[in-house]
Design goal:
The chain has 11 helices and 33 strands. The chain is α+β, with helices and mostly antiparallel strands. The longest helix is centred in the middle third of the chain and has 14 residues. A hairpin with a 5-residue loop joins β15 and β16. Helix content is 13%, strand content 31%.
């Protein structure tokens, strides 16, 4: 089952995240409820279906859906994860993952990990004290306007769920508090809402850490205990505040599957628990319990299709613990690392014999990302046969627990950014071991914008901004153009910080006559210098002493402006269009060239490999 196949529409707390490409009828949905300002609070909203294949998550009123297209890194390629073959995220062994259930207990207020053997009967579940640790989240969102990057869109509200983990902190889904301007929480049986602060937001794992300063909120609070990874057919109870009422809701089911799966909000591949308990909009961020009253994970998305029923997903405590430990180590969320290689399965005996692989194991390295440390260690044609002494099968899987196998990327996801991994490889028929540093993957066209607000630069009415997935969604693929989309889908960054800079629109003025109809065109050079990113372009404009500013675009189109006239027209253009500044705040910082002055950069040519598994379209290839 290709969960989150190339076109899953994930409508998260606030928006619909569409996995593009060839559509299917399958949907993964976020589970928080979103309400437009005009929606009546008592009215159950009509859900908007994407024209492309859908996948949703659980926040309540999904009617408001600024569409984000998120490409899953390995969305289509995991046979053991998403129903496909490959993997992008793999990690350590299970024993290590099971022990690493987050930060250890800190006194009476610390993040609780150790569980007590307290059996909770289903019939007495409504009296269980741990239900009081589940709270309702009220969030006001103000998303950026990527087409008009100097402003934001109209605010909207959503509701979701969260739960207490001790030390004055709560856990919820990242999509529940995406682009938040205000977050409030309310305890069960209370009529007071308390202001909460977002401490960390993990986009890839769809987890957010909140804190509430009010001592009144924490009176009598008992934080939840994180349990271990469940087994198949274990009972599971999902608790939260979904649509259909105002009070807490409880639904019960069993664990149906545990594997690496697509995370809609983060466009990533991590370990997930599939359950058959009812999960509805508003359940996002709520805990899932086992029969001992331990929290085994966080509800975050569902799978929608005409062919299936009752497929929901829970973020397991192994992923939650990774997020918490990452925050404890670094004081912020740094992300899940990646190996940065495109791998091919070695199921065919002739292929293994040609590569001198003696047994039915290993995956073939086909491409290496230039920004990954693996590019200095591995070579195309190497065969990876082990990761930290764990043997990798020819299907890209590793042993998992007693009698299961799981996607190879699970091992990578158990590591932290900056960790080293020992790879056993076969190169030219010779076995050897190499050390690789794992870092977060660098995307030429990002799925999410760090800091929330996109960068922009206005020169004589020409609005430049980096290409991003939110911008593609907002502008629609037709207006972006096939050539630019192909470059976004098939090109990897050659260095950290590289961006595709586009002219998004032209604010008509007498100084730019003849160029007014240009939009969504990539700018390649300024006065003969290749443009590395939006900050580099701003630096080139500021440092230019020539009479003319000569912009070279795709298809050899030129835009020439008289420099002094262009700069002097800025004030009147800003005033006429009600724009506060000619550039975003981040471009006011001094430009630092980290790539070297003489490095030749040519982004004119397309790459020859899809940059994510959602575009690979073949089970035998996978990003890791």
């Amino acid at each position: 089952m290709a969960i989150a196949a190339a076109n899953c529409l994930f409508s998260g707390v606030t928006f619909a995240t569409t996995y593009r490409l060839f559509s299917t009828s399958h949907k993964l949905n976020y589970l928080s409820s979103v309400r437009k300002p005009s929606d009546d609070q008592n009215q159950i909203p009509i859900k908007v279906k994407s024209k492309k294949s859908p996948c949703k998550s659980a926040i309540q009123d999904e009617e408001f859906t600024p569409r984000f297209r998120s490409r899953s890194r390995d969305e289509n390629t995991f046979s053991n994860a998403d129903g496909r073959s490959g993997s992008d995220r793999t990690g350590r062994t299970l024993s290590k993952a099971s022990k690493s259930l987050g930060v250890q207990k800190k006194g009476n207020q610390g993040i609780v990990v150790d569980s007590k053997e307290q059996k909770v009967e289903t019939s007495n579940l409504h009296n269980a004290s741990f239900l009081s640790a589940v709270v309702k989240v009220y969030c006001t969102h103000t998303a950026p306007d990527y087409s008009l990057p100097w402003q934001k869109q109209r605010q909207y509200t959503s509701t979701g769920s969260a739960f207490m983990i001790g030390d004055g902190k709560l856990l919820t889904n990242a999509h529940c508090v995406e682009h938040n301007t205000q977050v409030k929480v309310k305890r069960r049986g209370d009529d007071t809402k308390y202001v909460a602060k977002v401490l960390a937001r993990g986009v890839e794992c769809d987890i957010a850490l909140l804190s509430v300063e009010s001592e009144e909120f924490w009176k009598g609070a008992e934080p939840l205990q994180l349990g271990s990874l469940p087994t198949l057919q274990d009972s599971v109870t999902v608790v939260g505040y979904p649509l259909g009422g105002e009070t807490i809701s409880v639904s019960k089911g069993v664990v149906s599957r545990i594997e690496v799966t697509s995370y809609a909000h983060g466009s990533s591949e991590l370990l997930g628990i599939q359950i058959d308990a009812a999960i509805n909009p508003g359940n996002s961020g709520g805990p899932a319990f086992n029969d001992q009253g331990e929290c085994i994970g966080v509800a975050f998305q569902v799978y929608r299709s005409d062919d299936v029923e009752n497929i929901g997903y829970v973020i397991p405590t192994t992923v939650v613990s990774h997020f918490l430990e990452d925050y404890e180590r670094n004081g912020k969320y740094t992300g899940f690392p990646s190996l940065g290689v495109l791998l091919q399965k070695l199921e065919n005996p002739a292929l293994r014999a040609c590569l001198s692989v003696p047994s039915n194991e290993g995956v073939l390295v086909r491409k290496i990302e230039p920004t990954a440390h693996a590019s200095d260690v591995l070579k195309e044609g190497d065969v990876i046969v082990s990761f930290d002494n764990v043997r990798v099968g020819s299907e890209g899987t590793i042993p998992f627990r007693s009698s299961e196998r799981i996607a190879f990327r699970y091992l990578i996801s158990q590591k932290f950014t900056g960790d080293a991994a020992e790879l056993g490889i076969i190169r030219n028929g010779q076995f050897m071991k190499v050390q690789v540093i794992l870092n977060t993957r660098v995307h030429l066209v990002p799925y999410h914008i760090d800091g929330g607000q996109p960068s922009y630069l206005i020169v004589a009415g020409l609005v430049f901004t980096p290409l991003s997935e939110p911008l593609i969604d907002e502008e629609c693929e037709d207006s972006i153009g096939l050539k630019l989309l192909t470059k976004a889908r098939y090109s990897m960054p050659k260095f950290k910080g590289e961006q595709i800079v586009v002219l998004s629109q032209v604010l008509a003025n007498e100084v730019n006559i003849g160029y007014e109809d240009m939009s969504n065109e990539q700018v390649l050079k300024l006065n003969g210098t290749w443009i590395k990113n939006i900050h580099h372009l701003a630096h080139l404009v500021d440092s230019c002493k020539d009479k003319y500013l000569i912009f070279e675009f795709e298809d050899n189109f030129l835009v020439v402006l008289e420099r002094e006239s262009a700069l002097s027209a800025s004030e009147s253009i800003l005033k006429g269009y009600g724009i506060p500044s000619v550039r975003s705040c981040d471009l006011l910082e001094p430009y630092i060239d980290s790539t070297g002055q003489n490095e030749y950069i040519n982004r004119h040519e397309f790459g020859d490999t899809p940059v994510s598994n959602s575009e690979v379209g073949y089970d035998g290839l996978l990003w890791a």
